[in-house]
Amino acid sequence: EKGGFPSFMEKEINEQPAAVEQTLMGRTDPDGNLVLDELKIDESVLRAVDKIVVVACGTAAYAGQVARYAIEHWCRIPTEVELAHEFRYRDPIVNERTLVVALSQSGETMDTLMAVRHAQEQGAKVVAICNTNGSTIPREADAALYTHAGPEIAVASTKAFLAQITAAYLLGLYLAQLRGNKYKDEIAGILAELEAMPAKIQQVIDAQAAVKDLAQSMKDAASVLFLGRHVGYPVALEGALKLKELAYIHAEGFAAGELKHGPIALIEEGQPVFVIVPSPRGRDSLHAKVVSNIQEIRARGAVTIVIAEEGDEAVADYANHIFRVPQSPVLLQPLLTTVPLQIFACELATAKGYDVDQPRNLAKSVTVE
Ligand code: M6R
């Protein structure tokens, strides 16, 4: 049942191209328009939405953070992302013009369910992005947009994360299409880029041997840091979470811009730091800022492990190790840059002799509050 892989996690990492492909499938008409029939919320309500709040926990919340950059850019709708267990105990300002998006692989996470109810009580409409057909969160939500990643068995989320991001992109593009804003004409182009992603994810998976070698050599690391900016920031958080939950290594993700506000004090000789580099073909200053962050930490002795696009030569001089991902638009990069971090954590945990499918103290779905 593990399909010849030593663990469900490895199997699921390898299923990611298919998970993204299945999530995209059947959601466009022959003219290239997005058709989300499942989104059973009145179009007039969706047109009137003036705020989006994403609620989720753990990895799903990082998918929500990635979605925020895309949704705000494409739809120009203010978007917040909040951990469901914080949202539900605040007195959040939510009303009939708020669209709440609940992200959950299992559809059974208790805090996310409670956040959904809390939002609905105040008149908000809720869309669930979920991987488990007929589970509680999509049943209680006003509409459900399913990710079609297939069952995820390993406790650490991998393919569901990529599928959640994909579905959230579709939701953002659909709202842009419906509301006819200035990005409407770009939707077909972005969809074409999305459809090219499964093959690119496969290329990253095919290059995993180098990542595994590095993981093997780092099994005694006491702490690993992850830096990213823009959509690379939630990817950094996800890379750190994977390493914590699987390899029980202290790991932290930071927004690269925060470095000089504190975390740079952690950098000493030999400290491994992963840096997720945005495409140099995107906003110039964004790429340049991350390159200068790499220089800053290298100058203080960090061992820099850089995830960068093919052809990005600006990073080469400051990287101890480089893993390349194929070129893609900046907003879609998390579908690629996350993959080496998953492979790294899985391999390092395996090298330490840990069970990657069942890490200690964790459950696949957290149905308690
Ligand atoms: O089923 P959900 O997507 O609601 O689960 C949310 C989190 O519990 C989950 O993503 C958790 O953080 C994973 N162990 C991460 O790998």
Description of the molecule:
Strand 1, helix 4 and strand 2 (79-83) form a beta-alpha-beta unit. The mean pLDDT is 95. This protein has helices at residues 8-14, 16-24, 43-48, 58-75, 84-87, 110-121, 136-140, 159-179, 187-195, 197-206, 208-217, 232-247, 284-299, 334-351; strands at 51-56, 79-83, 98-104, 125-130, 143-146, 223-228, 250-255, 272-276, 303-309, 321-325. It starts with 7 loop residues before the first helix and ends in an 18-residue tail after the last helix. With 369 residues, the chain is an alpha/beta fold. The strands form two sheets. Strands 2-1-3-4-5 form a five-stranded parallel sheet, sandwiched between helices. Strands 7-6-8-9-10 form a five-stranded parallel sheet, with helices on both faces. The chain contains 14 helices and ten strands. Helix 4 (58-75) runs parallel beside helix 8 and helix 12 (232-247) packs parallel to helix 14. Bound molecules: 5-amino-5-deoxy-1-O-phosphono-D-mannitol. Residues 57-60, 104-106, 109, 112, 155-157, 245, 362, 365-366 line the site of 5-amino-5-deoxy-1-O-phosphono-D-mannitol (M6R).
Summarize the structure.
With 369 residues, the chain is an alpha/beta fold. The protein is built from 14 helices and 10 strands.
Q: What keywords describe this structure?
A:
369 residues, five-stranded parallel beta sheet, carbohydrate derivative binding, repeat, Glutamine--fructose-6-phosphate aminotransferase [isomerizing], glutamine-fructose-6-phosphate transaminase (isomerizing) activity, aminotransferase
